């Protein structure tokens, strides 16, 4: 029976892996033009004493990829600048709030106290105060921006290098660039929306050290996480609570309070710890140094799965905390571990049926009702929402929570596989859960959630590996269970089954996983030939010029308010090129092109001043772009306009 079940599962896995890989390649081939298809992320660029990082990147790729290199964008350490931008967005929001407040009641200007949290200090006019704060912060932002551009130490040993063909990018991303394998490391660049900019400034040596430390920390977290939970739950018990706080004894003796504490506090303590766990794991993944949001979520999902496997599955089967389990495993032979766990599996079937109904079924119902986001929205609406911008943020449905959702689904799949042969009565509960989960999550992905990035099914190899792990675990536990029964003689026939399953996994890994790690040169060349007539180098360069533009080159509003439509147009009768043709505030700092393709509109000593008007909610900003020696300076003058003007212009604020 176990053989039949395993062969059927592997057959379905093979078909699904084949279908997903084909869909991924079809999706990549169907896209007319995507920035990540032409761009490679280069890290650990060697430092040369007489040459900047930008010049080193340009010279290296012009020398080694002369026929395909198009341009590149340097990576700046702009983490401090990003903090100032977020601070400016908060001040701008307070200014908008006070302006709206004044418009509703023109007879009374809003005021605030300058002290801590506005609780004490000198009382000042709120609108004038925030305008002055914004003016000072704009000056600091301009100085910080210029400091980043002028300081060579701000340029990190990394760059986004773009090529004039998909084939050229594929060859660069999938080959070793230097005889020293630790230098000029190339990988496919993430989708622009998928880039996690904060980690691009981490050095190669630091990455290796961080991954080692985080691996140790994850192991400790998985096996020692139950210690604080057990401690808190011991306090939640009435006896422990009376010992810690004897003065509460008269209150605890009340019948209503006693029954409430006994039934509520232990579960609440566990739930609080589990709620903060995904945030802790995401923080640890960020410390590891991954440069893509999709990779961060995949690594966090893997860590959460390990935690669920040890503390929920094994922790529920084996009595005691995870630390006690680890201590017991270390002091017994490896052959005894499956046997000891296998004995406990049938006895825990009732517990897991209850767990599936309470956590699984109720979780699916809560997902379709979106109770948690509903409560959070009303709390934000009551205490935090002051402007329409706040309302939009509060109403944002967010995206699928992969780090928490995928491990939960994989845990239920593990339960189904383990109990399919041992206790089949659990299977109907699992089937009901997955049937409703399929309908609910399909609806949520299509109609509710926003898509933060497109990874083209990059999660599937990890899902496949978890299913294989579930199969192997179920086979080992079944062997342990049979060794304690009268069917002990049949146990040796199952020894070969885990080996066959791992061999199948290795075959699938070699057969299909390259499609998720690399882009076939054949596919790239075919796509290049199809689009050669429509994709000239000039059009492609204009398309890629700002694709991986670092936030320091964006206006302050574009960094934080991507969804606000900004209308940029030069004044009438202007002979200067529009802003869109400039492609970026400082192309020589972040994007280097071939010299023969370099626009000759601006010389090294030219000095042009362009004025643009940018309509923003609650303010009209006049940006003055001054170009001198390829450095742009920004002068911002804010003039408040009546709310109705922006309704007329298409801005609802």
From TrEMBL:
Q: Name one GO molecular function term.
A: calcium-activated cation channel activity
Low complexity composition bias: residue spans? 576-587
Positions of the region Disordered?
564-607
Keyword Ion transport annotated: yes
Q: Domain CSC1/OSCA1-like 7TM region: where? A: 210-482
Task: Tell me which residues make up the CSC1/OSCA1-like cytosolic domain.
Answer: 37-199
TM region positions: 212-236, 256-283, 304-323, 411-436, 457-478
* GO terms under cellular component: plasma membrane
Query: Does the entry feature the keyword Calcium, yes or no?
Result: yes
Tell me the InterPro entries matching this sequence.
Answer: Csc1-like, CSC1/OSCA1-like_7TM, CSC1/OSCA1-like_cyt
| Record keywords, A-Z | Calcium, Ion channel, Ion transport, Membrane, Transmembrane, Transmembrane helix, Transport
| Name assigned to this protein | CSC1-like protein At1g32090
Q: Which organism is it from?
A: Nicotiana tabacum
Q: Which gene encodes it?
A: LOC107810099
């Amino acid at each position: 029976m176990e053989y039949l079940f395993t062969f059927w599962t592997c057959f379905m896995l093979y078909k699904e892996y084949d279908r997903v890989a084909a869909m991924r390649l079809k999706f990549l081939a169907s896209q007319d033009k995507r920035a990540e298809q032409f761009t490679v992320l280069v890290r650990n660029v060697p430092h040369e004493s007489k040459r900047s990082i930008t010049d080193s990147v340009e010279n290296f790729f012009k020398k080694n990829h002369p026929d395909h290199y198009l341009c590149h964008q340097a990576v700046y350490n702009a983490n401090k600048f990003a903090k100032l931008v977020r601070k400016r967005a908060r001040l701008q929001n307070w200014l908008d709030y006070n302006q709206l407040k004044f418009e509703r009641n023109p007879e009374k200007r809003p005021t605030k106290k300058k002290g801590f949290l506005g609780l004490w200090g000198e009382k000042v006019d709120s609108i004038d105060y925030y305008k002055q704060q914004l003016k000072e912060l704009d000056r600091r932002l301009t100085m910080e921006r210029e400091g980043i551009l002028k300081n060579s130490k701000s340029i990190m040993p990394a760059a986004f290098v773009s090529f004039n063909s998909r084939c050229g990018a594929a060859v660069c991303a999938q080959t070793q660039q230097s005889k020293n394998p630790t230098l000029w490391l190339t990988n496919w660049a993430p989708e622009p929306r998928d880039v996690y900019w904060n980690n691009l400034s981490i050095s190669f040596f630091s990455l290796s050290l961080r991954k080692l430390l985080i691996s140790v920390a994850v192991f400790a977290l998985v096996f020692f996480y139950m210690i604080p939970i057990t401690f808190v739950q011991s306090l939640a018990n009435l006896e422990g609570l009376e010992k810690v706080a004897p003065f509460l004894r008269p209150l605890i003796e009340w019948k209503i309070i006693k029954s409430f504490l006994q039934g509520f506090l232990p579960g609440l303590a566990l739930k609080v710890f589990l709620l903060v766990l995904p945030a802790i794991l995401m923080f640890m993944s960020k410390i590891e140094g991954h440069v893509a949001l999709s990779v961060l979520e995949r690594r966090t999902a893997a860590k959460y799965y390990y935690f669920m496997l040890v503390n929920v599955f094994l922790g529920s089967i084996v009595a005691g905390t995870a630390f006690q389990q680890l201590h017991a495993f270390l002091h017994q032979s490896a052959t005894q571990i499956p046997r000891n766990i296998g004995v406990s599996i049938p006895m825990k079937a009732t517990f897991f049926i209850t767990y599936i109904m309470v956590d699984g079924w109720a979780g699916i119902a809560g997902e379709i009702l979106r109770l948690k986001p509903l409560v959070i929205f009303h709390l934000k609406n009551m205490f935090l929402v002051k402007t329409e911008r706040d309302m939009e943020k509060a109403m944002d449905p967010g995206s699928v929570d992969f780090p928490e959702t995928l491990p939960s689904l994989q845990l239920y799949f593990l339960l189904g596989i383990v109990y399919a042969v041992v206790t089949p009565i659990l299977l109907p509960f699992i089937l009901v859960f997955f049937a409703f989960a399929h309908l609910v999550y399909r609806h949520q992905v299509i109609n509710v959630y926003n898509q933060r990035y497109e990874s083209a099914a990059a999660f599937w190899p990890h899902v496949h590996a978890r299913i294989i792990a579930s199969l192997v675990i179920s086979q080992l536990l079944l062997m342990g269970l049979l060794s304690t029964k009268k069917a002990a003689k049949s146990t040796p026939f199952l020894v070969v089954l885990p080996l066959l399953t791992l061999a199948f996994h290795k075959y699938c890994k070699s057969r299909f996983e390259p499609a998720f790690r690399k882009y076939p040169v054949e596919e790239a060349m075919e796509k290049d030939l199809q689009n050669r007539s429509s994709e000239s180098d000039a059009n492609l360069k204009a398309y890629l010029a700002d694709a991986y533009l670092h936030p320091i080159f964006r206006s302050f509003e574009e960094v934080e308010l991507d969804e606000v439509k900004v209308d940029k147009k030069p004044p009438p009768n202007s002979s200067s090129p529009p802003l869109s043709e400039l492609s970026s505030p400082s192309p020589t700092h972040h994007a280097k092109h071939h010299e023969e393709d370099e626009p000759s509109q601006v010389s090294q000593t030219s000095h042009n001043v362009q004025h643009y008007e940018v309509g923003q909610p609650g303010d009209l900003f006049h940006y003055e772009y001054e170009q001198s020696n390829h450095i742009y300076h920004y002068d911002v003058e804010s003039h408040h306009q009546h709310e109705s003007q922006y309704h007329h212009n298409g801005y609802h604020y």
